[in-house]
């Protein structure tokens, strides 16, 4: 159980065949997006492994033959996000206090993940690639649209998964919006 | 139509009242690009970003895009990123290493010193007569101050040192490592760039010295961000020794610093990074080295401040420079550089990087709420009905003193104690002077 939401493997086809691994992961990401969109941040945190790494590097405009330097380096350079579970919990606590004015009242968000591909499966860890669209509408007028790529390392946990590592590659170099108050 | 001088009623810093239109008016914005940005020394980056010959990065000098290069003679150049032929940016990359930049349009080629070295159809088209000296990239005057790089395209601006004046004490202290060693910082690789719908001055004035806005940060205070093991966002909150809070403004240049001045020199270290013993040990050691190096001046805890017009620095464990790039009256690009002490062990650099990234910028648990404030204040600046009423900057007015409480803060230091909008009044006074207002810095507040 995560919050009030059942995490049993869903019925995805009429003939009740067992869902494939890919379908189960798609469903997991859909559930995750739903929790974030419902601002059920406590339940969202439950989906993260205790040793989770959550990282969003900064993109730069780089010459074609030096593309490996397009994104800032992990554990070395600046990043938009470079978090562990404790700091994500702190961010959730800040969001929930009612006095974090950048997110009070809460923005409306819709998280979409697509183009899921299983890159590798090793022991209990599955590495996936996908694309995301995160739409944010704040107060009346503000609209933020974040599009990019994600690499996730999922750890099998009972019937479900936990996120062991998330790397988020946003398709913006200069952030075109004032804040990143949303989880990806 | 261009204004020659600003209406003196717009900024009556002496009375603490400021007309809202200076945040919203397009004409005023155009004039400040010419008269404030066009005549000021502007921070463009740090020498540690370009350690090797040929290294470069792009930056902004106000609205003007520049390329900052280290040439073959190890000199730092700040070049306007505009081809002298047809105006294209000659550098299209955020950073890299290059001896020359070739314009994609007609192939004019410039060395990383700015010299025009390649001219297609040089003899057939120009008869070999085009004066290459005249048609190099436009070069800024450059000043290097303890590793920080400053530039101006103005021939009239006084020297960087004269512009900085007695603020040099604070800026130099900021650029020192925590052990008091000069030029002790290096950048963390990468510049954060983000866009806010706010006038550039809201961020600048906030950093000049707005100790009144603590209520904005209750949410992060409650959660606790500092690694002292206590609640709060500043590591220095853990130091319980007594100090005065000072708003140290330097009216001649419009600069200001927010300073804690501890009562006693040679004070003991009090644990500020208790959650990370190795880091705490480094800062303990650095603290005593700094006390020894700086003596009496080691009483200063330089929290942060601004170098007029558009540069804020945060120090005291939060080493960062924030630059406001004005794009329109209600649109500002923000650039942020983070720093770590260059001689610190990797564990300290890592801890600082994590702390800094959670503190500032659009993901910063502190700055997110600042940005929200500045963008929201813009709504009020643009309100038609509210325009009848000026913005109020009268908090704790009429108490500032020159070169107080210690003469070594500089003859040019004009200081107020406690929660005050003193530094903001000084900021706007300097702004008004550059915009053509009456020069009366010394009479400021005394005229009341």
Automatic annotation (TrEMBL), chain A:
<dbReference type="Pfam" id="PF00866">
    <property type="entry name" value="Ring_hydroxyl_B"/>
</dbReference>
<comment type="similarity">
    <text>Belongs to the bacterial ring-hydroxylating dioxygenase beta subunit family.</text>
</comment>
<dbReference type="InterPro" id="IPR000391">
    <property type="entry name" value="Rng_hydr_dOase-bsu"/>
</dbReference>
<dbReference type="GO" id="GO:0019380">
    <property type="term" value="P:3-phenylpropionate catabolic process"/>
</dbReference>
<keyword id="KW-0560">Oxidoreductase</keyword>
<dbReference type="GO" id="GO:0008695">
    <property type="term" value="F:3-phenylpropionate dioxygenase activity"/>
</dbReference>
<protein>
    <submittedName>
        <fullName>3-phenylpropionate/cinnamic acid dioxygenase subunit beta</fullName>
        <ecNumber>1.14.12.19</ecNumber>
    </submittedName>
</protein>
<dbReference type="InterPro" id="IPR032710">
    <property type="entry name" value="NTF2-like_dom_sf"/>
</dbReference>
<keyword id="KW-0223">Dioxygenase</keyword>
């Amino acid at each position: 159980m995560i919050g009030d939401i059942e995490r049993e493997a869903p019925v995805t086809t009429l003939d009740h065949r067992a869902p494939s691994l890919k379908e189960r992961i798609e469903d997991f990401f859909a559930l995750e997006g739903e929790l974030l969109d419902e601002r059920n941040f406590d339940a969202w945190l439950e989906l993260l492994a205790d040793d989770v790494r959550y990282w969003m590097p900064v993109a730069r405009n780089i010459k074609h033959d030096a593309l490996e330097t397009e994104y800032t380096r992990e554990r070395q350079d600046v990043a938009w996000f470079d978090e562990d579970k404790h700091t994500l919990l702190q961010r959730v606590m800040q969001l929930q206090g009612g006095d974090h004015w950048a997110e009070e009242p809460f923005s409306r968000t819709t998280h979409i993940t697509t183009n899921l591909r299983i890159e590798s499966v090793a022991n209990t860890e599955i590495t996936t690639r996908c694309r995301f669209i995160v739409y944010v509408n704040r107060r009346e007028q503000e609209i933020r649209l974040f599009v990019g790529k994600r690499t996730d390392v999922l750890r099998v946990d009972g019937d479900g998964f936990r996120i062991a590592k998330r790397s988020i590659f946003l398709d913006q170099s200069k952030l075109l919006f004032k804040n990143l108050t949303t989880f990806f | 139509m261009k204004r020659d001088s600003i209406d003196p009623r717009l900024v009556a810093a002496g009375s603490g009242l400021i007309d809202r239109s200076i945040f919203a008016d397009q004409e005023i914005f155009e004039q400040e690009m010419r008269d404030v940005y066009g005549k000021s020394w502007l921070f463009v980056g740090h020498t540690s970003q370009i350690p090797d010959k040929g290294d470069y990065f792009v930056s902004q000098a106000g609205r003007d895009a520049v390329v900052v290069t280290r040439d073959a003679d190890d000199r730092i150049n700040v070049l306007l990123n505009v081809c002298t032929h047809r105006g294209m940016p000659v550098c299209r990359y955020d950073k890299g290493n290059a001896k020359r930049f070739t314009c994609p349009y007609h192939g004019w080629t410039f060395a990383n010193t700015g010299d025009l070295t390649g001219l297609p159809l040089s003899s057939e088209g120009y008869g070999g007569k085009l004066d290459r000296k005249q048609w190099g990239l436009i070069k800024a005057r450059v000043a290097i101050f303890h590793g920080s790089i400053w530039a101006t395209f103005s021939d009239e601006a006084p020297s960087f040192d004269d512009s900085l004046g007695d603020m040099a004490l604070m800026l130099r202290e900021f650029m020192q490592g925590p052990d008091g060693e000069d030029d002790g910082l290096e950048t963390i690789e990468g510049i954060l760039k983000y866009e806010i719908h706010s006038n550039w001055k809201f961020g600048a004035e906030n950093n000049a010295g707005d100790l009144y806005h603590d209520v904005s940060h209750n949410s992060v205070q409650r959660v606790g961000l500092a690694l002292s093991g206590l609640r709060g966002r500043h590591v220095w909150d853990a130091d319980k020794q007594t100090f005065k809070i000072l708003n140290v403004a330097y009216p001649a240049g419009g600069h200001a610093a927010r300073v804690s001045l501890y009562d006693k020199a040679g004070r003991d270290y009090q644990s500020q990074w208790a959650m990370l013993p190795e880091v705490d040990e480094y800062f303990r050691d650095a603290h005593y080295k700094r006390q020894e190096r700086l003596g009496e001046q080691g009483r200063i805890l330089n929290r942060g401040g601004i170098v007029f017009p558009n540069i804020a620095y945060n120090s005291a464990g939060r080493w960062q420079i924030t630059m406001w790039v004005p794009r329109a009256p209600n649109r500002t690009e923000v650039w942020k550089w983070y720093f770590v002490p260059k001689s610190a062990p990797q564990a300290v650099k890592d801890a600082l990087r994590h702390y800094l990234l959670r503190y500032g910028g659009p993901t910063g648990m502190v700055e997110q709420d600042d940005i929200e404030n500045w963008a929201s204040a813009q709504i009020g600046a643009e309100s038609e009905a509210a325009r009848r009423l000026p913005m109020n900057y009268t908090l704790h007015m009429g108490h500032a003193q020159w070169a107080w409480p210690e003469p070594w803060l500089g003859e040019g230091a004009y200081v107020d104690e406690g929660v005050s909008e003193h530094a903001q009044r000084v900021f706007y006074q300097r702004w008004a002077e550059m915009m053509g207002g009456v020069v009366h810095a010394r009479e400021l507040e005394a005229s009341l």
